[in-house]
Design a protein that fits this description.
Helices cover about 35% and strands about 15% of the residues. With about 240 residues, the chain is an alpha/beta fold. A seven-stranded mixed beta sheet has the order 3-2-1-4-5-7-6, with helices on both faces. The structure holds zinc ion.
């Protein structure tokens, strides 16, 4: 199956929190979107790897993505080396996405900036024909380089290079976020508090989208950073 967009995240829930509404909108417009989680989030203070697996499945169904895979790298400790790059390259070549979303360029959790660079490096290397990989049936995979790599924004308030108008998709985004029942605000939870389990954090996901929307003249927005300048055919392409 060929994908239009592959959204890569260090942990299950990174993608939902940062670009869930953009994904829901692209899916609604007929695009094939997949999610690749690098780890199972097994070091998360709340919940377990098993609960996270279930929650990720529920969130994927809410966003109506075509596929969701998990590379089971070590949460907190994966590194950007040949072994990890090759695992991601195999997934990129399998799904041949035109656009890849990946973690924020800079963030509070160390896996986010690590995952960001790892995914971006894998996208570049995936285009090199002399790097040979095989699919699950032992067939040689053709080289494939996504046209664009866009970094979503998560914890820190990074300044976006462009904003997607996600008006109409914030509710489905929040449903996908709150599918991670063990992770986010739940007044009845007995689990320890974490920076992302507060009501303040859950609210911030919505008010940031609202604020970005305000700044670009729409109701809600999600921001992204680019690695190279964005180009348009015409100045009238911009909203
Ligand atoms: Zn994360």
């Amino acid at each position: 199956m060929k994908l239009d967009i592959l959204a890569i995240g260090a942990h299950p829930d990174d993608v939902e929190l940062s670009c869930g509404a953009t994904i829901a909108k692209e899916v609604a417009q007929g695009k094939q979107v997949g999610i690749l989680d690098l780890t199972r989030g097994e070091l998360g203070t709340r919940g377990t790897a098993q609960t996270r697996d279930e929650e990720a499945k529920d969130a994927a169904a809410i966003l109506k993505v075509a596929v969701r895979e998990n590379l089971k790298f070590a949460d907190g400790f994966f590194i950007n080396d040949k072994k990890h790059q090759l695992e991601i390259i195999k997934v990129i070549r399998k799904y041949q996405p035109d656009v890849v979303f990946c973690n924020a360029l800079d963030d509070r959790h160390i896996d986010h900036s690590k995952g960001s660079k790892l995914a971006s490096d894998a996208c570049f290397l995936s285009g090199l024909v002399k790097i040979e990989t095989k699919d699950e049936f032992g067939n040689t995979q053709p080289a494939w380089r996504p046209k664009h790599v866009y970094h979503y924004i998560q914890w820190k308030n990074l300044q976006p290079d462009f904003v997607v108008d996600v008006t109409g998709y914030i509710d489905v985004k929040m449903q996908s976020v709150l599918a991670y029942k063990t992770q986010f605000f739940d007044e009845n939870s007995k689990e320890p508090q974490t920076p992302i389990s507060s009501k303040n954090f859950a609210d911030s996901v919505i008010y940031r989208a609202r604020d970005l929307g305000r700044l670009v003249g729409v109701e809600y927005g999600e921001g992204f950073n680019v690695e190279r300048y964005v180009a348009v055919d015409s100045v009238f392409d911009l909203k």
